[in-house]
Design a protein that fits this description.
With 374 residues, the chain is an alpha/beta fold. Helices cover 42% and strands 12% of the residues. It has a single domain (14-372), classed as Aldolase class I (TIM Barrel, Alpha-Beta Barrel). It is built from 15 helices and twelve strands. The chain is globular. It starts with 13 loop residues before the first helix and ends with a strand. The structure holds flavin mononucleotide. Keywords: Flavoprotein, FMN, Oxidoreductase.
């Protein structure tokens, strides 16, 4: 099967999208998006957690007019979700992030660009029109480089910095290791590096994305295991943009984030790709929401597959969610059109789920509408 389809009609369920994506692309990239780390216990727990909570709807409200939006740090999320930062999207489709950015722009869905992309953050921005965008930072071991990327994001109209804190090292992704598959080694995530003035200063001549020296250098500086809470003060000195931490799972870390003046949290376990055996995002959410008490926005990802998942996350304390793997399957199947279809179906499902919960706006979705399955 080729990955550009006209008159496209993609399946509505993620399990069928997964199958179609598996038939559309090579095993290496498919496994890279599909798999988790270790024995994939956390990957599975993310889905199970959503099944262990039940919505208790309330009826006979007029739900003929509905508003699925939420506002987070001055950014409107028209459907209470954004696209999660997903790196190296050219391994799924030649247009990579440019295709998913255009699909997000079509529906006004906020886009979070990863550090480790196949196209530069500036080029991605040109495909987003007026659509809100945030930049996800892997805080480099080379601090000057990290600051340079933040400055570039600011200049290109990104309105928040999302610092991913769960990736001090890359997780032990057994299926990728068994396949010997590494997008880094193929030079697929170099765009933000080879277009960065600070990174280029480290080379005598301008290198290309798959130069051995570039790949080695990125491998050396991509993640920073020595990062601490105190380092947040540095980034705050260099940008006026709001800062969110992605990957928070412990309520004590949520509390610390408040102390350090962070502006928002993304409760996430990286889709079960980092520490296998760690708590699912949805289970981590209620204690974090208790600590935060509405003083900063909380978002959630890892396991969002349907509209009812958005309602559950919202009822347990998240203002909005991030959609990850499902849009990547759409990208793998049919590029921009594939992502568009996945977004269209998800947006409809959120709206239907809101109405069937008996609510006319996301602000009405609260704890009273959810119970744990006995
Ligand atoms: C292929 C792939 C690449 C990813 N790349 C990044 C990344 O560059 N930065 C980041 O913070 N998270 C990254 N993530 C994690 C996502 O942002 C998100 O946390 C995860 O996909 C949520 O899990 P779910 O897709 O199973 O719902 C990636 C996830 C996948 C599947």
């Amino acid at each position: 099967m080729t990955n550009s389809i006209s008159n496209l009609e993609l399946p509505h369920s993620v399990s069928l999208l997964e199958k179609m994506a598996a038939e559309s692309i090579e095993n290496g990239p498919f496994t890279y998006v599909h798999s988790g780390s270790g024995n994939e216990i956390t990957l599975k727990a993310n889905i199970d957690a959503f099944e262990s909570w039940q919505i208790v709807p309330k009826y006979l409200n007029d739900v003929s007019i509905r508003d699925t939006s939420s506002k987070i740090l001055d950014t409107t999320f028209p459907n209470s979700f954004a696209l999660a930062p997903v790196g190296v999207q050219s391994i799924f489709h030649p247009e990579g992030e440019l295709a998913s950015a255009r699909a997000a722009a079509h529906y006004g869905v906020p886009f979070i660009a990863s550090t480790f992309t196949s196209h530069s953050l500036e080029e991605i921005a040109t495909h987003l029109g007026d659509t809100p965008r945030w930049f996800q930072l892997y805080w480099s071991k080379d601090e000057e480089l990290a600051i340079s990327m933040v400055k570039r994001a600011e200049k290109a109209g990104y309105s928040a910095i999302v610092i991913t804190v769960d990736t001090s090292l890359i997780g032990n992704r057994e299926r990728d290791l068994n396949n010997g598959y590494s997008p880094l080694k193929l030079g697929k995530g170099s765009a933000n590096y080879i277009n960065d003035p600070v990174f280029l200063e480290r080379f005598k001549t301008r290198p290309s994305s798959d130069d051995k020296g570039v790949i080695e250098k990125i491998g050396d500086v991509l993640f920073n295991p020595s990062l601490t809470w105190e380092d947040l003060r540095t980034i705050k000195k260099h940008t006026s943009l709001p800062i969110l931490l992605k990957g928070i799972l412990h309520e004590e870390d949520a509390s610390k984030a408040m102390d350090y003046g962070v502006d928002g949290l993304i409760v996430s376990n990286h889709g079960g790709r980092q520490l296998d055996g760690c708590i699912s995002s949805l289970e981590a959410l209620p204690p974090i929401a208790d600590v935060i008490q509405g003083r900063m926005p909380i978002l959630l990802d890892s396991g969002i597959r349907r509209g009812s998942d958005v309602i559950k996350a919202r009822a347990l304390g998240a203002s909005a969610v991030l959609l990850g793997r499902p849009f990547v399957y759409g990208l793998a199947i049919a590029g921009e059109q594939g992502v568009r279809q996945v977004l269209k179906n998800f947006i409809n499902d959120i709206d239907t789920s809101l109405a069937l919960t008996g609510c006319t706006s996301m602000s009405q979705v609260n704890k009273s509408l959810i119970r744990r399955k006995k």
